[in-house]
Every structure is written in structure tokens, then in C-alpha cells.
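// run 5 | inverse folding | seed 20
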């Protein structure tokens, strides 16, 4: 199924390459400037987007074997992901049931048990409480009710999605809107992590606007990688999720081949975004790589943190790892010193109140669609959330 969609997108791209055109939105889209800094609006986004929706928190490849775990902060919530002895991924609030301490420090590792560093209460890979220090002196408690708090979790297309709201019944598959079928073409479950670092940025929407925007590439990135890149974009959407790519003349060369010989890595080019906070950008530096950017709101409306993870599609040799690390260094520079430096300037300027709205042109359909979904989610209460995604269609 994913190959049919990849080929259809490639043919659509080829048509626009030959015609010298791009699709355009019906009109200019306006976003209130206060949406980028108003505390009340930001709180709504935190609760109705980041605490209600599935967030992509890991690649399956980070948790390959039973016993593997990943502990992290996600939108202000401590999360523990663990692959149990049965091979299933589980997600928990990383919080001890005794007095609330963080049980597992941030990072990747393997463990059969998780012992709280405060009083040594101990949990197994299923999150069950299996040890209470000096239990005979503690008092009468039912350990079966004091396990780690589980979070809804699903593993799709080599990625792990979790919802930060315990007990949520939101259908993760409905939320993905079939996007995972296409993302499965990457085979992410077999990729290898090479580098990880964090970059501080502006309001999460200022930052995320850039991941959907090719319009700025030859201008903002003129001294890095942008001088020869056109600023025209093609967008494809699955519910709130989007792929963006430019008209690609390389695809025209495929027309002389049968479609079943069109290379999947070529068909996978561009930037794949997972609403509301992930960008997957593809690169070929002699090895096939992706930069996975996980964007999380910071402690205030005007700040965010992006975790950049660089993966290769195979176990790298020493030479390949060195090349990949240089690429990761370069991409960190581009985001930190070009994209986010500009974004932090935008944040300072927008908070003056000098402008009442931001504009997204007819060629900036990705941003238009993104903000439309943000507005709909902020306006939708819990009762209407399932219906919102049930109605999502592929476009």
C-alpha cells in the first residue's frame, strides 16, 4: 500500500516539474500574532494538544531487545518507555508511587528492574511494584495498586507513540490517519542512532513553522545549504500530518523505468512531519540518513526545546559514523544559528504587539494546514476529539 502512495506522489511531483508549477492555496491565511505568545492560549495548546494527542517519543530501534528502556522528558512530563520480556512496548509516568521521585534518569539503557533512587522502591518491566524497602516497617499497603502509572502507547512503522494523559481512550490509529502505512516504507525499526543533541528555540509554533516552509531556504540558508534550492513546495497530508518536498527533476529520470524499479529511498525524499511536534528530514551523504527533530514546548510560551537525533539505515563503519557526526554537527548549526536564531528574534519582536497577525501565502500551504489543525484542536473539547480524527481523510 505504501508503495502505491509513494509512486502517486512521485508522479504528481513529476507533473509539476514538467509544467513548472506548484499547487497553491485559495488565498492568504492569517494567524493572530498573539497565538505565538499569549499565556492562556499556550496553556490550552499544552492541555489540548500535547497532553491529549499521541506524541512520537522514540524509534523502535532505540529499544531493540527485551529489557531496553528510554527515559525522557516530553512536554514537561517524565516518561519511561520499556520493552518487556514479551517484546511489547509499555509507557509509564516516570514517577515513584511512594513520594513522586523520578525513578529512572534520562537516557537509554537495559534493566530488568527499576529502583527509585529516593527510597529504593522497585518496579519490573511491566511497571508492577515488586519491592518495598523495609516492608515490615512501612505499614500495610496493597502493592498491586502502587505500580507505575501506565500511559497509552502504540508501536507503528518502527516508531513509538504515547499519550501523556493516563487513561486516554483516543484511537492512536485514527490519529495517524494512515500516515504510518507510508512511513513504514523507511523501515525505521532497523535504523541505528548515531547522534543526539538538544537545541533551545522560540515558541513551538514559530519553530515548527520552519519545518513546513521551503519558502525561506534560499534566503535564510544562503550561506549554508540553500543557494541552489528552489523555494517552491508540494504538500501531501494525512489528517494533521504532512510531507513537504520541492519539485524534484531527479524524479523525471525515473519515467523510463518500470514503476516497480523506482528506488524507495528516492521516493522517500523530503521532509515528513508528524503532528504536532516531529520532523523527519532525509539525507544522502554516501549513507542514507534522517534527522529526527522532536519539538517540545518549553517552560514558558516563548521557548521550546528540540531534540535532534541522527539515524543511519545500517550499522555504520567508523568512517561512516565520522561522516554522519559531521552531518549532525552541520544540521545542529543550521537549526541553532540560522533557523532558531531567527525564530528567537521573531519571538522578541512578536511580543511587542507591533503586528496583529502573521501571514501565510498561497505557496505556504503546509503552514496554513498546520495552524488550521492547531485551531481546531484548541477549540475541540474531549467529547469531540475522537470524531475530529475519525473524519480525517487522506489528501
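// decoded
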Amino acid at each position: 500500500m505504501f508503495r502505491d502512495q509513494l509512486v502517486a506522489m512521485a508522479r504528481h511531483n513529476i507533473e509539476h516539474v514538467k509544467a513548472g508549477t506548484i499547487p497553491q492555496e485559495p488565498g492568504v491565511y492569517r494567524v493572530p500574532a498573539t497565538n505565538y505568545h499569549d499565556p492562556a492560549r499556550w496553556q490550552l495548546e499544552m492541555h489540548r494538544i500535547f497532553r491529549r494527542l499521541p506524541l512520537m517519543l522514540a524509534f523502535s530501534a532505540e529499544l531493540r531487545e527485551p529489557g531496553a528502556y528510554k527515559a525522557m522528558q516530553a512536554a514537561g512530563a517524565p516518561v519511561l518507555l520499556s520493552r518487556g520480556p514479551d517484546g511489547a512496548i509499555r509507557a509509564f509516568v516516570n514517577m515513584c508511587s511512594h513520594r513522586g521521585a523520578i525513578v529512572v534518569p534520562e537516557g537509554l539503557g537495559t534493566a530488568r528492574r527499576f529502583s527509585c533512587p529516593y527510597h529504593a522502591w522497585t518496579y519490573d518491566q511491566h511497571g508492577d511494584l515488586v519491592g518495598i524497602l523495609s516492608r515490615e516497617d512501612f505499614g500495610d499497603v496493597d502493592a498491586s495498586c502502587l505500580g507505575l502509572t501506565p500511559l497509552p502507547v502504540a508501536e507503528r512503522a518502527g516508531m513509538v507513540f504515547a499519550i501523556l494523559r493516563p487513561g486516554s481512550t483516543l484511537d492512536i490509529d485514527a490519529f495517524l490517519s494512515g500516515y504510518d502505512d507510508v512511513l513504514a516504507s523507511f523501515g525505521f525499526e532497523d535504523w541505528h542512532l548515531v547522534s543526539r543533541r538538544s537545541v533551545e528555540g522560540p515558541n513551538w509554533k514559530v519553530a515548527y513553522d520552519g519545518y513546513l516552509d521551503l519558502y525561506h531556504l534560499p534566503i535564510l540558508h544562503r550561506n549554508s545549504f540553500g543557494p541552489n534550492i528552489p523555494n517552491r513546495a508540494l504538500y501531501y497530508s494525512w489528517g494533521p500530518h504532512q510531507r513537504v518536498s520541492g519539485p524534484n527533476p531527479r524524479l523525471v529520470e525515473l519515467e523510463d523505468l518500470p514503476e516497480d524499479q523506482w528506488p524507495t529511498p528516492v521516493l522517500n525524499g523530503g521532509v515528513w512531519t508528524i503532528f504536532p511536534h516531529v520532523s523527519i528530514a532525509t539525507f544522502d551523504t554516501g549513507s542514507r540518513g534522517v534527522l529526527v527533530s522532536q519539538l517540545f514546548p518549553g517552560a514558558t510560551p516563548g521557548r521550546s526545546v528540540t531534540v535532534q537525533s541522527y539515524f543511519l539505515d545500517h550499522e555504520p563503519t567508523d568512517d561512516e559514523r565520522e561522516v554522519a557526526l559531521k552531518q549532525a554537527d552541520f544540521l545542529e548549526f543550521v537549526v541553532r544559528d540560522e533557523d532558531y536564531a531567527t525564530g528567537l528574534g521573531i519571538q522578541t519582536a512578536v511580543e511587542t504587539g507591533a503586528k496583529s497577525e502573521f501571514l501565510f501565502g498561497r505557496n505556504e500551504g503546509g503552514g496554513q494546514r498546520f495552524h488550521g489543525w492547531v485551531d481546531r484542536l484548541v477549540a475541540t473539547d474531549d467529547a469531540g476529539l475522537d470524531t475530529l480524527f475519525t473524519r480525517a481523510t487522506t489528501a
